[in-house]
TrEMBL record, chains A, B:
Positions of the HTH crp-type domain: 183-257
InterPro entries reported for this sequence: cNMP-bd_dom, cNMP-bd_dom_sf, HTH_CRP, RmlC-like_jellyroll, WH-like_DNA-bd_sf, WH_DNA-bd_sf
Segments forming domain Cyclic nucleotide-binding: 49-145
Name of this chain's protein: Nitrogen fixation regulation protein FixK
Gene Ontology BP terms: regulation of DNA-templated transcription
GO molecular function list: DNA binding
Length: 278, 278
DNA sequence: CGCCAACTTGAACTTAGTCAAATGTCGTGG
DNA sequence: CCACGACATTTGACTAAGTTCAAGTTGGCG
């Protein structure tokens, strides 16, 4: 009995005859397992949205989610310069990775939402070049370097899928860099809010209408390279122009299309189909 | 007969007795091969500076350098949005990867110098999210996705070394992002010139005294998120302050230590020892 | 020689930062 | 219940950094 999810469509096949009732029973058992895996893990959900994962691969992925730990908001999970070998898969809550300068100012490099890896690069460099802070209380699965490499060796397709997700993250960092270098404050904010919405939509936490967002204006300032004061002004302007409203922990897109036009937002780099479905 | 280069020191050993003259002959043969490989390939040189590579791994690395091609300055090697599966190893010359915005402005994400990979991420995403432009005439070895994966499968240590180099590149992009978000124009320029110097020193093309640099002030402007006019002013100021001189395709550090202090340059993220020498 | 690209400089302008102060909100302890 | 502090948000007035526009200068090369 074989089973796979292909671009959202379940496919199953068998090479020998079976009674219909037995076939049905098996399929339903597998479906239940899959549903379980996908519902329990935003990472699985994210990867499944792009890449065909077999039952076996899903099982390996699930095994990576053992060793679950909780962390409280605000206390650094990893600190810049710390030598640490573990990565994490974020299961619930938001985090951000940032670097602090000697003069005290900080730059947020990226936000992580459920399904994202934390500190994958640190594992390879054997040293964290940045800090990671939980923005709210979070749940994360610790992944030891050895387990990850083991999983890669046993399921190369999964390895490719994870590397693909890492590449996608890197593409987002590049887009962020472009924003800091070549977009003014309004465009930067618009682009940021749109990108975050697109990412959240992938794990079922947002839509074109808006999304819940626990970030403070200080987080936005540190991410966008602006002062908190200016962030506030920009948000006011966007709100008054009926483009987007950021208020009380919630982002509401008042006019998605005009916002996309302002930000010159092109979600191509997020939308791409994965590398496995050839 | 075994042989390795370990942090710049050659090591050889054998498990059976051999006549001294024969041993000597073998060692000199191997040395010649290695010298050849290292001189011919800046990538080999870069990796060897951090990671112990065996004779076999060096041979595999050399094989990746077949299929050498030339490209003229200014004509895009890869274009944004292009679907392309090959990556390149830059053998000679300088290139830059950049993104252009719909409004025509461009942001240079990174410069590549000999020994760097071009478009490694594009291979995984099956699509280039940026363009690559040779700054001068360049020589690059085309690496097909298949060859790369084959080499990875046969020599996992080499795979780790290359992934490590890729992580290091990503760390540089992050540092660049921090610069755009949280450093003013002077610091940004100082930091950039220092980082470039450190990278070039790794492949023997620069020192604490300075280095040859084919970039124009427009390149600097596009990389640092400044206008070309302002780049000119910043360069003048740094020159007048006797910190660094950028002129006639040559960067000269007039006062390395004060420049490091101004830029708050911390080369930790470039200096790190590789992942294999545990 | 004349052209072109890179570089240089000045002046006016715009964006975003800094400083300062007021408002709002939430949870804690009296 | 209210007072209080901690923190996030909001607004205004002023300032500094960097852009834009415009007009040269320089140097290499056909």
């Amino acid at each position: 009995m074989n089973f796979a999810i292909l671009a959202g469509i379940a496919v199953c096949w068998t090479d020998r005859k079976q009674s219909p009732s037995r076939l049905l029973r098996e399929v339903s058992k597998i479906l239940e397992k899959l549903l379980n895996a996908i519902q329990n893990s935003p990472l699985t959900r994210k990867l499944s949205a792009f890449v065909a994962l077999s039952e076996n691969e899903l099982a390996v992925l699930e095994r990576l989610h053992k060793r679950r730990r909780s962390f409280v908001a605000g206390r650094d999970l990893v600190h810049q310069g710390q030598s640490k070998q573990a990565a994490y898969i974020l299961a619930a809550g938001w985090a951000c990775s940032y670097k602090t300068q000697p003069d005290g100012s900080r730059q947020i490099v990226d936000f992580q939402i459920p399904g994202d890896f934390l500190g994958l690069r640190s594992v390879l460099l054997h040293m964290s070049d940045h800090s990671i802070e939980p923005i709210v209380d979070i749940q994360a699965a610790e992944v030891l370097a050895g387990d990850l490499l083991g999983a890669f060796a046993r399921t190369p397709r999964l390895a490719t899928a994870i590397l693909w997700a890492a590449s996608r993250d890197e593409a987002m960092v590049v887009e962020h860099l472009v924003g800091l270098g070549r977009r003014d404050a309004d465009e930067r904010m618009a682009h940021f809010l749109l990108e975050l919405g697109a990412r959240l939509a992938l794990v079922g936490m947002g839509s074109k209408g808006g999304y819940a967002c626990p970030l403070t204006q200080y987080h936005l300032a540190d991410a966008l390279g602006l002062s908190a004061v200016h962030v506030n002004r920009v948000l006011r302007k966007l709100r008054e122009d009926k483009l987007v409203t950021f208020r009380d922990g919630h982002v509401t897109f008042d006019n998605y299309d005009r916002l996309v036009a302002l930000a010159q937002f092109d979600p191509t780099y997020l939308d791409h189909i994965g590398p496995i479905l050839k």
